Amino acid sequence: AQSVTQLGSHVSVSEGALVLLRCNYSSSVPPYLFWYVQYPNQGLQLLLKYTTGATLVKGINGFEAEFKKSETSFHLTKPSAHMSDAAEYFCAVSAALTGGGNKLTFGTGTQLKVEL
Amino acid sequence: GAVVSQHPSRVICKSGTSVKIECRSLDFQATTMFWYRQFPKQSLMLMATSNEGSKATYEQGVEKDKFLINHASLTLSTLTVTSAHPEDSSFYICSAAGSGGSGANVLTFGAGSRLTVL
After folding, report:
1. Given CB atoms, is B43 within the 8 Å cutoff of chain A?
2. Which of the residues A3, A17, A19, A43 could staple to A26 if both were Cys, CB 3.0 to 4.6 A apart?
3. Using an 8 Å Cβ cutoff, are A26 and A3 in contact?
4. CA-to-CA distance for B113 and B32, rounded, in angstroms?
5. What is the tens place of the pLDDT at every residue in A42-93?
6. pLDDT value at A11 more than 70
7. H/E/C letters for each residue in chain B?
8. Cα dist. B53→B32, B50, B75 in Å?
9. DSSP-derived pairing of the beta strands A24-27 and A2-5
10. Positive or negative: CA dihedral B111, B98, A51, B59
11. pLDDT tens per residue across span A14-38
């Protein structure tokens, strides 16, 4: 069984400030980890993913995340927030070993607000 | 990149009627499609997994007779909400995974369909 916990349902930052969205996972098998962004009334867009290899993963729009197995974490960061980053962010996990990279378990989401 | 088209984006229907939502992969063959339901300000809940040419696999608690899923071709899956009631009002999102590739297939999501049942 797998689960994802996103700490903080709402995060507010100033434009230009560091963005940190937290994600912890639980998985009985090696996980694949994902971050998605959702704008209002739209589907999900993949920001980045971790499968194997380098634990620091770079994604689109300047976001990156680091897989820390010892901490079971996959926090999302961006050095400088932009107004256009305001959206809902979802962390997700899937099971790697079964080839089930498709069946995702989502966290509850974090709403990012960017203020001037 | 891969594109998934979902239609309609918004639909309003009367209680007791049925509504069909289509999910199409436009530039790739989707062996597997997933249907999610999202309540306001909540996460996505997987409803069912559909594989082309076979019956859908429903998650626990999802009524298969209520939410009919058909995946008749490698580019089209449909979700039909039968005898819709106001509590079925929600945002429904499909996603598709292509054939082949690594075990870490990346899902491509549709833009979602907002169903409002009056």
Report:
1. yes
2. A3
3. yes
4. 19
5. 888 999 999 888 999 999 999 999 999 999 999 999 999 999 999 999 999 9
6. yes
7. CCCEEEECCEEEECCCCCEEEEEEECCCCEEEEEEEEECCCCCEEEEEEEECCCCCEECCCCCCCCEEEEEEECCEEEEEECCCCHHHCEEEEEEEEECCCCCCCCCEECCCEEEEEC
8. 10, 9, 11
9. antiparallel
10. positive
11. 999 999 999 999 988 888 999 999 9
Given A45, A49, A108, which is nearest B43 (Cβ)? Answer: A108
Residues of B in contact with A109 (CB under 8 A): 41-43
DSSP A53-102: S-SEEE-GGG-EEEEEGGGTEEEEEESS--GGG-EEEEEEEEETTTTEEE
pLDDT band for position B115 (cuts 50, 70, 90): very high
Say which residue the tokens 């903080």 belong to. Answer: A8
Q: How far apart are CA B16 and CA B91, in angstroms?
A: 18
Is A44 in contact with B95 (Cβ distance < 8 A)?
Answer: yes
pLDDT tops 80 at residue B105: no
- Structure tokens that stand for B112 in this block: 């979602």
For residue A43, which amino acid is it?
A: G
Q: Cβ(A9)–Cβ(A112) under 8 Å?
A: no
